[in-house]
Amino acid sequence: MSHFPELISFIRNEINYSIKKLPIPDKPTYLYEPIKYALKGKGKRLRPILTHLVGRTYNTDPNSLMSISLAIELLHNFTLIHDDIMDKDTIRHSQKTIHYKWDTSTAILAGDGIYTVAQLVLNSIDRYNKEISKCFNEVTLDICEGQAMDKEFENLDIVTEDLYLEMIKKKTGSLIAAAAMLPSIYAKDEIDNIELFRTFGEYLGKGFQIHDDLLEITSDSKTMGKSLDSDIFEGKQTIMVIKAKQYFKESWESIVSNSKKSDLKKNIYVFLNEKKIIEETKHIAESYFKKSRKILKELNHINSDELFMFVDLLENRSF
């Protein structure tokens, strides 16, 4: 296990190097300068790292594995650029968001360009696989559906935990599932195993997103490398907000309505902590990480040791 952090660092560096080597043109500047800017952001590269770890269990061709990983990371960046516009975020990957640095039109076009580059990278794999393309595009639509649900939920009082979990399964879980599934599809594994990877990724994605929601409240923008307060101000529905509205509706509404903007995040943290909602949410996140490990145990045709360590990495992350 002692070598695992070094392995993760090595894979991340290789992914960053490959992103830097992508043949992105210089002109027109309006399109390509923001794309290059977005791709140099300090992303954690967790999704393409997962793709590499799964690919390692199949001894996948390194060049093809990197292409799949890059496509996953580019798709992720495409969604972030558009999400940042809709959520009015100003910081992403420790730098200004594209719409904030330039303007909305520039950001929309840059996101579209990055998504197209992702498709081209995917199509460059040594043996083209229509099932890989199909999975990739289905996931893209899932992410769009999840973002649509997220926007619909803003400032609604009636959002159940089940609806929230369905939303994050699409918005977050589907891409993490794809990161795990695509190497299995490329290896032409049995459909039952591919579906186990889907379930593993969806559980892992739910745990990841709920843990991320916690960090939005308990961490700070500098540590996270992105703006945090925007979710609060935009009325985002997290599982903590849903529970606060369900059990302490009047007190919650009073805090949100009467707090100064500068004090709102702190006041929300104190309230959620006192009401044990943060503790309860931690247990829910833990339950999904536990479920993802249970699925890994069913994938007994591969050596999943590194994947278990990856789950630990996500569960224990502080940024």
The whole-number mean of residue pLDDT values reads: 93
What class, by secondary structure content?
Answer: mainly alpha
CATH architecture: Orthogonal Bundle
User: What is the CATH domain class?
Assistant: Mainly Alpha
Instruction: Give the distance, in angstroms, between the N- and C-terminal Cα atoms.
Output: 22 Å
Estimated radius of gyration? 20 Å
Integer count of domains: 1
Question: Which spans have pLDDT < 50 for at least 5 consecutive residues?
Answer: none
Principal-axis shape equals globular
Provide tags for this entry.
single chain, 319 residues, mainly alpha, Farnesyl Diphosphate Synthase, two-stranded antiparallel sheet, 16 helices, 75% helix, 1% strand, globular
Description:
- This protein is mostly helical and 319 residues long.
- The chain has a single domain, classed as Farnesyl Diphosphate Synthase (Orthogonal Bundle).
- The chain is built from 16 helices and two strands.
- The chain has a two-stranded antiparallel ribbon with strand order 1-2.
- Helix 4 runs antiparallel to helix 8 and helix 8 (161-186) packs across helix 9 (191-218).
Q: In a few lines, what is going on in this structure?
A:
This protein has helices at 4-20, 29-39, 46-57, 62-87, 98-101, 104-123, 130-153, 161-186, 191-218, 221-224, 229-233, 239-247, 249-258, 264-274, 277-298, 305-315; strands at 91-92, 95-96. It is mostly helical.
